[in-house]
Amino acid sequence: MFAIQKVIYTVDGWDGVIYFSEEVEDPGRDVPRAIFGSVFSIIGIYLLLSAAVAYVLPMNEIAGSDFALGAAAQRIFGSYGDVIIRSIMIVSLISCINACQMFATRVLYAMSCDGLFFRAASRVNNGGTPVLALLLSTAIGVAFTISKTFSQVIDMLAFFFVANYTLSFISLFRLRVKEPQMPRPYRAWGYPWTTAIALTSSVAFLGGALLADRENTPWAFALLAVSYPIFRVMKWASTRLGPQGSAPELRP
């Protein structure tokens, strides 16, 4: 379970394009392409890196190393190998942080447009960025990061991510029944069986995380539980601060 927590955080982001669906000209075509493209790209990258490490290092050194990729780089580039790999990883984190902040910003923006959050968070600047939503999500992210260790944050985020998947799968079932007439340019292969398998796996992970990780998962579950009454209060407050007009469009 602890290993799966790390893997979930590592591969998450494959669905990131859905947060920008409003900014995609043809989402029915481009969103599935982006998702499949990202999934297969990450699979290819990880397989190639794993094969390279296995080619350079014997298996006993890989098993006993906290950073096998750095050890392999040292074998190739000498004493600077570990520094080179870590530097590349730090630079790559910049793009990851940028993407995560954009995800969170778009969630607050969409909630504000639907009257589920303060209307001010839906305002965008001349460049199309919802500034207040960006500031709020950044402040919350910084507070969350400095309050926990890196490993704790990863484990808690894994729970949040899978909880998000679970709610998405449930929503898919409900919307297919509730709104059968809605246009659906892309239909998931094997529905409803593939979605049911994914939903069952997600629920199993959440249950396993609650049982196995008694240190971090209860905190994640508590934050998730507290978020619902906060959501209800925010929704109530936003409806009393003024009428909901048309929302500005987000455009790159």
Show the helix and strand layout.
Blueprint: H1 2-11, H2 27-56, H3 59-63, H4 68-77, H5 81-113, H6 131-146, H7 150-178, H8 193-212, H9 217-238
What do these coordinates show?
The protein has 252 residues and is mainly α. The protein has one domain (2-238). It has helices spanning 2-11, 27-56, 59-63, 68-77, 81-113, 131-146, 150-178, 193-212, 217-238. Helix 4 (68-77) packs across helix 5. The longest helix is centred in the middle third of the chain and has 33 residues, at 81-113. The model has no long low-confidence stretch (mean pLDDT 86).
Could you name the key traits of this structure?
mainly alpha; 252 residues; 0% strand; 69% helix
Short description:
This protein is mostly helical and 252 residues long. Helices cover 69% and strands 0% of the residues. The protein is built from nine helices and no strands.
Topology pattern, helix = H, strand = E: HHHHHHHHH
Q: Write down the Rg.
A: 21 Å
The number of helices is 9
Return the average pLDDT rounded to an integer: 86
Would you identify the regions where 5 or more consecutive residues have pLDDT less than 50? Answer: none
The number of domains is 1
Helix fraction, binned, reads 55-70%
Task: Count all strands and give the number.
Answer: 0
> N-to-C terminal Cα separation, in Å?
39 Å
| Dominant shape | globular
Largest sheet: none
Strand content: under 5%
Class inferred from helices and paired strands? mainly alpha
